[in-house]
Amino acid sequence: MSRSRVVVAVLVAVLGTAAFGGCQKGEREGRAAGDGPDPSRIRVGLVLSVGGLGDKSFNDSAYEGLKRAEKELGIEGVYGQPEQMAEDEKYLRQYAVQGMDLVIAVGFLMKDALGQVSAEFPDSRFAIIDAVVDQPNVASLVFSEHEGSFLVGAIAGLKTKTGIIGFIGGMDIPLIHKFEVGYTEGAEYVRPGIEVLSAYAGSGPEAFHDPVKGKSLALSQFNRGADIIFQAAGSTGNGVIDAAVEKGLYAIGVDANQNYMAPGHVLTSMVKRVDVAVFEIIREVAGDRFSGGVHVYGLEVDGVGYSLDEHNEGLLPEDVIARVESIKRDIIAGKIKVTDYTAAR
Amino acid sequence: MSEPVTVFALSLLAAAIRKSVPLVFASTGGFFSERSGVVNIGLEGMMLFGAFSGAVVAVLAHNAWLGLAGAAVTGAVIAGIHALATVNFRANQIVAGVAVNLLAVGGTVFLAQVFMGGERSFSLGPADRLPMWGPFLPLTYLAFVTVVLATVLAYYTVPGLRLRAVGEHPRAADTQGVHVARMRFAAVVASGVLAGLGGAYLPYFSGSFAKNMTSGLGFIALAALIFGKWHPVGAMAASLLFGFADALQETLQGRGGLPPQVFQAIPYVLTVVALAGVIGRVRPPAALGKHYERE
């Protein structure tokens, strides 16, 4: 029987290494320049949200901001990909202990973890995307997703032939409802009485990386007559885009510009410049003018918006663009009020 | 409900079949393993490995059929590890299965980063996909063919009789000249092949691989196997029921102004009702979970 114990012990050891190897690898790769720690350089630690790199959306966008800062500001960037929410705090603390000049938490799920860690390290500087942490050493980077979603909602309302459009969210949380409500209001603004179908992939963080669920929810909405679906669902949304291709209909991308993912089938993307927010806050640190508190990225600074490029050129006619641009001006001028679901609570 | 009833019913039926495919594969796989006396809660991990290797081989080779073969082989290898630990070294079957599942979550993320340049989820290009045969992927038809084959093999052939004998009364089988360890090893490997194919369905259907994308399907397949009284046809029926329940919640979500959680709970409620009230007493294979040692 002792032989079986040895086997089990070896198995456990191998598995343990494999399970943790996943995250360590990311860190090593993240040290871009590779010439070791240089005390004169600003060091930034980026902790990514569940789903990790490759979502072609939220996380990839944050990572792009870090890369740009490395290139343009000469900082040294490190990133980590926690396997699950429970590890977020460990990563944040680890970077704080290492004396990073700035630690960035990507995603609202890290709100509690960052609240904890930022209080423990009052002399370190932190930033968080999509959440507000009320500490003097934390910059809270939030976006006016409701305004950007209003614009793509208006585009969907102007483009739909069936008068039915859809929305698919990832995890059922207030932040995602903020997208949905803005989108619905935008569609109703240009086309009163329009029918907006809505579904959520689930109630846990895994709802942001379930493309199978995304595709089947999308097929269900397309079958009910929707011809355009806006997804705010991380890599779950990749399944929505795939369904649009299969059905010959349209999806709307989110966070990053996803038009290229299926040219001709992604009507536009509700871009949320996480990359800009990450870059700007690193620039504040590099220029020694870091400020805590809430930083809002809205329509007026192009923190959110809709994307136009060569991949969706033929999809949006001049008159649609003109109409959306005038709506955008009205929102900035305060003539159109878009409900902010997260503020209303 | 805005659409005509026929459209509603047809799209619901199609969705239920699509949803059940990975469950049918994995529960049929579980059938072989458990009928031979080896508990296989590692189905989840074998599916995840299948999903990953199916996707990565398809992307690298631009050939989904090769990807499918890759998924089957990977499933077999992982199942081989499970068989080695449980059959040859008599490790606890539950613990070994948990180990397989843990290995899959960490291992596929790690390998995805190695093969796909640091990314944990990636898309399949149009050339990396299986063709559609009518309304479904080829795997959909294969899943139901597999059920028929498994039933014939297990109940109408001599090796099938031996397989079941090994799971019911290994000593009796042994005295009749059946090599118990070899039979169990083969059965566990077969379960890995099928679980791998079931997992590969996920990226081929959705067009991308995402971290931990099986999200519990292996455990649902195991439940379907028990629900179906350890019979391939019963397990298939249970898989279809679970698929239907999930499809129903997706189709109904957002209707009637009710919160999505009301609909998301449907599959679970249905499962509890079915397990508690409908199927009655089930009898697992008598030697399930028990090691066999020759005297």
Topology, pairings included?
The complex is a heterodimer of chains A (345) and B (295).
Chain A: H1 2-30, E1 43-47, H2 58-73, E2 76-80, H3 88-97, E3 102-105, H4 111-120, E4 126-129, E5 138-143, H5 145-159, E6 164-171, H6 174-190, E7 195-202, H7 211-223, E8 228-232, H8 236-247, E9 250-255, E10 266-272, H9 274-286, E11 293-297, E12 304-306, H10 318-332, H11 341-344
Parallel strand pairs in A: 1-2, 1-3, 3-4, 4-5, 5-11, 6-7, 6-8, 8-9, 9-10
Antiparallel strand pairs in A: 10-12
Chain B: H1 5-35, H2 43-61, H3 64-88, H4 93-115, E1 122-123, H5 138-156, H6 158-168, H7 170-175, H8 180-206, E2 208-209, H9 217-227, H10 232-252, H11 260-264, H12 266-278
Antiparallel strand pairs in B: 1-2
Helix pairs in contact in B: 1-5, 1-8, 1-9, 1-10, 2-3, 2-4, 2-8, 2-9, 3-4, 3-8, 5-6, 6-8, 9-10, 10-12
